[in-house]
Amino acid sequence: MAINFTVNGKAASTDAPPTTPLLWVIREDLKLTGTKFGCGTGLCGACMVHIDGRRAFSCQTQISEMAGKAVTTIEGLSADSSHPLQKAWLAEQVPQCGYCQSGQIMSAADLLKHNPKPTRDQIVEHMSTNICRCGTYQRIVRAVERAAREA
Amino acid sequence: MSAPAFNRREFTAGLGAIVVAFSLDPKLARGQERLPGSLQTNRRLDGWIRINADGTAIIFTGKVELGQGILTALAQIAAEELDLPLSRIKMISGDTGQTPNEGQTAGSQSIENSGTALRMAAAEVRAILVDLAAKRLGLAADQLTVADGAIAAPDGRKVGYGDLNPDLDREASAKASPKPPAAHKIVGKSISRLDIPAKVTGGAAFVQDMRLPGMLHGRVVRPPRYGSKLDSVDEAAAKAMPGVVAVVRDGSFLGVVAEREEQAINARAALLKSAKWTLGPELPDPARLFDVIKSLPSKDATIGVKEGAAPANARTFEAVYTKPYMAHASIGPSCAVAEFKDGKMTVWTHSQGVFPLRAELAKALKMQIAALRCVHVEGSGCYGHNGADDVAVDAALLARALPGRPVRLQWMRDDEFGWEPYGPAMVMRAKAALGGDGKIADWDYEVWSNTHSTRPQSTDGTNVLAAWYLAEPQKMGPPTSPPQPAGGGDRNAIPLYDFPRQRVIHHFVQDMPIRVSALRTLGAYANVFALESFMDELAAAAGVDPIAFRLAHLNDPRARAVIEAVAKKARWAAGEKGDGTRGRGIGFAKYKNLACYVAVVAEVEVDRGSGMVRVPHAVAAVDAGLIINPDGLTSQIEGGIVQSVSWTLKEQVRFDQSGILTRDWASYPILTMPEAPKVEVELINRPNERPLGAGEGSQGPAVAAVANAFANATGKRIRDLPLNAARVKAALT
Fold first, then answer.
1. Which option is the CATH number for A3-76: 3.40.30.10, 1.10.10.10, 3.10.20.30, 3.30.70.100?
2. CB < 8 Å from B in window 57-96 of A
3. Is residue B172 a contact partner of residue B44, using CB atoms and an 8 Å limit?
4. Band of the pLDDT at B370, cuts 50, 70, 90?
5. How many domains does chain B have?
6. Which of B505, B450, B524, B520 is nearest to B480 (CA)?
7. Residue of chain A whose alpha carbon sits nearest to that of B266
C-alpha cells in the first residue's frame, strides 16, 4: 500500500516495503541526495532531516511511520543558499570534505527553530548528535552563532 | 623572483614510488633540464593550461579535492599568474583521460608540486600571450599592460586572451618569471572555497551522489576476517530477493547488484548470513601487540647519525612510547561508480590517485591500461589511504558482470571500519644523556613500525583488497617505505634539535598481521609524540622550562620563530605548573623535517574521578612559507588539531584473535563537538619562501602538546596512546 507524505512541501508517495528506512526513499525515490548515508545506526548524523518540524535520523525512521507527515531535507532549506544557516556556513567557510555538513545544518536548523538565540553551551550540546571527522566543530559553532545573530 | 629551488634528494624523497615509475619513462631523456614541481614529469604546457576562445582558461591538475581546499588554492595560483579573474578559470582535476599524472594527492605536497608547476606554467603562458599580442599590435612586449585577461597598448587598443589562440602544444621552459609576492592580488587572499556552495545546499557534491541513467546499486560481502576462503553461499536465495539483478562471485570475492540501494543492502545481509568460510589466520593477541611488533622480522636502518664525543658523567634516561592502530574513519563509507561499456571500463572514484588506481585496476581486472579510465569525484574526507581504491575495484568487478549498466557501490559502515587499511601500531624507544650543563649530550632513538603505505603502486604486486580474494588470487609485493628525509614509519624520527651526538634506528617491520597503510602524517604523529614527550621529560629532569629547553637545542630560525610565537600568543609563563587537574604543554615539529613548521600549546582538564581528559583550548603558530589562502591554511590547522586530539584521547582499533572488533561508531568513538577544543591559529607568512602544504603539519605537535599538558597537570606521564579513562585512572592511582 502506498504511503503518502510530503517532502519539502511537495506531495510524495512510495510503495517501498514498510520497514524501508526513510533515507532510501529520500535518496532513491525522490533523488534528493543531500541527505547522506553514514552509518545506518543513528550514530553519526549524516542522514539528519526534519519530520514535522523536529530533527530525526532518516536512517532510523521506517517509512511505515511516515503517513501524513511532513519531511524537510537540506534541499528544502533553500536551493540557493539563502537560508540564514547556509549563508552563515558560507561566510564561516565551515566545510572541509562536507559529507557530514547537510546533517549538521539540519540539526542546527532544528535548534534555531525552537531556540532562536541559543547560548554557546546550548549549541554545543544540541550538536553533539552530529560527528565531523575533518574537525570543523568550531566553525560550526561560529556559523550557528552568526545565523542566530543575523537571522 | 626566481623559480623555487628544489634539490634532487628532497624532490625524489617526496614523490616516492611515483618518481621511480617516471624515471623509467622513455620520454624523459637523460640530461633533460629539470623543471620545477610537477612540470618535471608533465612537461607539456597544454597539459596544464588551455586558453579558450571565450577568454576563459581551463586548468588541469593531477591533484584532487579531498576537502582540503586544494582546487581553490591552485585556481588562485593560476589566476594570479595569468592575470585572469577567478571566475574565468575552470579546474579539471584527477582524470586519467585529461589531466597530468601527479601520482597521489598526499603528504601535504600538492601546493609544492602542482602549485609550483601551475605557477611556472601560467607565468609562461602569460608571457606567450603578451608576445602574441605584441606582434598583433606592432609594439614591443614591454610597452603592453595586462589586466583581467586583456592586453592593452598605451594608445588604448586591446586584445583579449580569447583572440590570441596561443600554441601551447610545446614543452614548458620554466623561463618566465612568476610575479613577485608584492604584486600578488589573488594569492594570499582568503578566497572562498569553490567546492563549498554545493556542500551546504545538498547539491551533487560527492561520488556518493552520482546518479547515471540505468544505474544499479552494489554491495560487497566480506569474510569474517583476513585471508578467509568462501566455501559456499546461497546465491539462488539472494538472486530471488526483490530488485536483485546479479550475484557476482569470483573465488572468495562476493558482491551483489540490485535496482535500488536498500535492496542491495538487504541482499548483502542475506548473503552474509548464508556464506560459509574457512577462516584465515588468527590475529595477534592485543595484550601482547607491542611485543609481537618488536619480535617480527624487520629491515633495520640507522639514520640521522651524529658522531659527537661520548658524554662523561651524564645522567641517562629511557622511555618507551606506543601508538595503537588507528582508523581513517571517514564519515561517509567509501564509494565508487563503475561502467563497463564496449570493452572499456570507466570508474568514478574518490581515490587520492587516479593514475595509480588505474594501474591496479589493470592488474586486478586483467585489462589493458588503455581500456581503463579513472575520474576523480569528491567523496567523504579520507585522511590518507582508506577504502577509496578498494571500493573502486569492487565496483569495477561488479560492473564487468553487467556491461552497459553503471554500478554504484558504497561500502557499509562495518566494511569501512573492518577492512580499511589502518594507520600502523608503533613502538618508540627513546634514550638520552643529560650533561652537567643541563643540555642533551647524547640521543638514541628507535622506532618499530610496519610500512605506512600499501597504496596502489606502492609495491610490485597488486595493492587492492578484492584482488587478494579472486579465484586466481593476486598478492601484494614486499612492502616499501619512502626513504629519508621524508620517511615512512621513521617520518620525523630524526630530531630537528641540534644534539651533539645521536643515532636513530628505523626497524621497518615486514609482516603485517593487520592491514595497514597511509594515515595522515604517516609515522610523524607517533614520532613527534615520543620525541616531544621525551623532550619534556628531559626538560623536567634538567629543571628547565620546556620551551626554554627546546630553544636551547634549536638553531633553525624558522623553528624558533613558531615556538616563540606560540609561547607569546598562549601567554606561556616559564616554569608554569599544573594544579592537579589543569595544565598546559607544548609540542613542535617541522613536518617531515622538510615542510611546514608548527608549534602548539594545548590546555587539558583532567577529571581525576572518571579519568576523562578534555582539551578545552589549543593555540598554534604556523610557518608554511608563502601563504596562498590564509583562511584555507587556518582551516587545515584547526581541523588537524581537532583530529589529532580525537586520535590522542579516544582512538584505537579494537581487535582480538578472532578478528577486527571495531565495526561502528560505538566501537570506534571519535571526538564530538562538546569535546572539541577551541583552536586559535597564528600564521607567519614568508612571502619569499616557497609555499608549503600544511594538511599534515599540526597533528604531531598537537598530540605532544596534549601529552605534555597532561603531565604538566598531573605530574604523571602517560606514554601509551590513547590517553583514555582507563589509562588516566591507572596513572593517577
1. 3.10.20.30
2. 73-75, 77-81, 86, 89-90, 93-96
3. yes
4. very high
5. 3
6. B450
7. A20
